[in-house]
């Protein structure tokens, strides 16, 4: 009896899912979006293949890893992953799935370990992803090559000023290139301190009913909702208890739109800086002006908001960073960190942490408003008539330009410009076969016997 050697896993035939042409859902020149993109299951499945699999996705903060064996588990789309520091102190990320039957090999949120052992059949992997133990290994055939069955590693992993990103796409451009012009705006949060930033207070997680894009687009572009949705919160936070003055409510500001789908909005009124009093009093604004320049201190370092396409968002003045994990078209899981400057005294770090929890934690006075909005929007998405509505994204049309102060294309603060840019990027990626689809086509041409 002859035994046929096993083929590499990437040679196994897989029936391709039919592609959805999403072009009919958009007329971005007129600012129109069909809300089908928020509820359709086929669209969602295509997002996992063409948005999340090819893109750079945020995983963790570097400060979560201080010694070999430290790990943190997260998701890339709906794929569970482990981020870990190896013996060489190098950060790596792997699919959190045993190569034997696919069970998660790590079921803890974070910690330290020497190896990841699957609790189903005991296959064990070291922190470099190598398969190091197979119970009853002698019962496997001669062509079983243990060193070929390590954990599946991401194609690329890189960091930007403390933020850890990864992608499954071996053809993706370098991270800094993928961030594009947004780095100038990101640095208003990440580059205050020569020592960098660190995450404090752990990771807060909560589940919301709503499509992940609703959150990502809001953080990219939507200051418009602030005075309406957050009216009660603004009243509580104002010195008089009656709400901010009209010139602050109608604050001037700018909104940055990146062709790669990123966005950042920020007020420019000198009092539009709703940060914690302790943090505000400690901050040396003159030193920051020397380091970052007046335009950043008076703009994106204020009470602004931003999104790195597709699903990482941040609030500079709060030190809040978060990721919107998709859990189907109707649900997302929000994971949020607080980051602080390393040079801050402990009492200032703690003040920033508490302030972030009170405003944008899971029970924060602003966060609850946002979550209810997204859930209410999603609640009507499945009706026949309501689900086929055309949504209006026309605010700011024709008003974007290069203003000579803030790099790239910007427009007024009250605008849908960055949302239109977000959806233009989403549309283009959704209508472009990803690297794995192109490779599958090539393999099918070379090996027609593998095609179902």
Topology (SSEs and partners):
Blueprint: E1 26-27, E2 32-34, H1 41-52, E3 57-61, E4 70-76, E5 79-85, E6 91-95, E7 110-112, E8 115-117, E9 124-126, E10 131-133, E11 156-160, E12 163-167, H2 175-179, H3 182-190, E13 197-209, H4 212-221, H5 226-229, H6 231-237, H7 246-249, E14 253-257, E15 263-267, H8 277-282, H9 285-292, H10 294-298, E16 305-308, E17 312-315, E18 320-326, E19 331-341, H11 346-360, H12 367-379, E20 390-392, E21 409-412, H13 417-430, H14 435-446
GO molecular function: dioxygenase activity
Keywords: 2Fe-2S, Aromatic hydrocarbons catabolism, Dioxygenase, Iron, Iron-sulfur, Metal-binding, NAD, Oxidoreductase
Organism: Streptomyces neyagawaensis
Could you characterize the architecture of this molecule?
The chain folds into two domains: 57-158, Rieske [2Fe-2S] iron-sulphur domain (Rieske Iron-sulfur Protein); 180-430, Naphthalene 1,2-dioxygenase Alpha Subunit, Chain A, domain 1 (Alpha-Beta Complex). Helices cover 27% and strands 24% of the residues. The chain has helices at residues 41-52, 175-179, 182-190, 212-221, 226-229, 231-237, 246-249, 277-282, 285-292, 294-298, 346-360, 367-379, 417-430, 435-446; strands spanning 26-27, 32-34, 57-61, 70-76, 79-85, 91-95, 110-112, 115-117, 124-126, 131-133, 156-160, 163-167, 197-209, 253-257, 263-267, 305-308, 312-315, 320-326, 331-341, 390-392, 409-412. Strands 13-19-18-17-16-15-14-21 form an eight-stranded antiparallel sheet, sandwiched between helices. The chain has a four-stranded antiparallel sheet with strand order 6-5-4-7, with no helix packed on it. It has a three-stranded antiparallel sheet with strand order 1-2-20, with no helix packed on it. It is globular and about 75 Å long.
């Amino acid at each position: 009896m002859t035994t046929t050697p096993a083929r590499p896993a990437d040679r196994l035939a897989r029936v391709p899912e039919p592609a959805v042409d999403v072009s009919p859902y958009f007329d971005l020149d007129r600012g129109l979006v069909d809300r089908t993109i928020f509820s359709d299951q086929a669209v969602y499945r295509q997002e996992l293949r063409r948005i999340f699999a090819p893109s750079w996705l945020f995983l963790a903060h570097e400060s979560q890893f201080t010694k070999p064996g430290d790990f943190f588990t997260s998701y890339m789309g709906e794929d569970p992953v482990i981020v870990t520091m190896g013996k060489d102190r190098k950060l790596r990320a792997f699919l959190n799935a045993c190569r034997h039957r696919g069970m998660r090999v790590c079921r803890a949120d974070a910690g330290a370990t020497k190896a990841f052992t699957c609790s189903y059949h005991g296959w064990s992997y070291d922190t470099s992803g190598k398969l190091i133990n197979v119970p009853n290994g002698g019962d496997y055939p001669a062509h079983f090559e243990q060193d070929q069955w390590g954990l599946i590693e991401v194609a690329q992993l890189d960091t930007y000023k403390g933020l850890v990103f990864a992608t499954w796409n071996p053809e993706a451009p370098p991270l800094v290139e993928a961030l594009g012009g947004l780095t100038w705006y990101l640095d208003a949060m990440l580059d205050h301190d020569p020592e960098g930033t660190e995450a404090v207070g752990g990771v807060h997680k909560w589940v919301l009913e709503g499509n992940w894009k609703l959150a990502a687009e809001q953080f990219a572009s939507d200051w418009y909702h602030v005075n309406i949705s957050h009216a009660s919160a603004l009243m509580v936070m104002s010195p008089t208890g009656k709400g901010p003055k009209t010139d602050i409510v109608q604050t001037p500001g700018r909104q940055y739109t990146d062709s790669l789908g990123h966005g950042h909005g920020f007020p420019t009124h000198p009092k539009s800086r709703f940060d914690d009093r302790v943090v505000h009093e400690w901050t040396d604004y003159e030193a920051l002006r020397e380091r970052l320049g007046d335009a950043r201190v008076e703009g994106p370092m204020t009470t602004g908001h931003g999104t790195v396409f597709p699903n990482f968002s941040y609030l500079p003045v709060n030190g809040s960073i978060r990721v919107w994990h998709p859990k189907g078209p109707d649900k997302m899981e929000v994971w949020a960190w607080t980051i602080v400057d390393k040079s801050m005294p402990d009492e200032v770090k703690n003040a920033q942490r508490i302030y972030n929890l009170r405003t944008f934690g899971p029970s924060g006075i602003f966060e609850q408003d946002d979550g209810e909005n997204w859930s209410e929007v999603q609640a009507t998405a499945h009706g026949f008539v309501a689900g086929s509505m055309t949504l209006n994204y026309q605010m700011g049309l024709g008003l974007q330009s290069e203003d000579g102060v803030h790099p790239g294309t910007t427009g007024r603060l009250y605008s849908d410009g960055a949302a239109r840019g977000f959806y233009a990027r989403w549309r283009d990626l959704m209508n472009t076969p990803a690297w794995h689809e192109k490779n599958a086509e090539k393999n099918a041409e070379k090996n027609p016997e593998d095609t179902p």
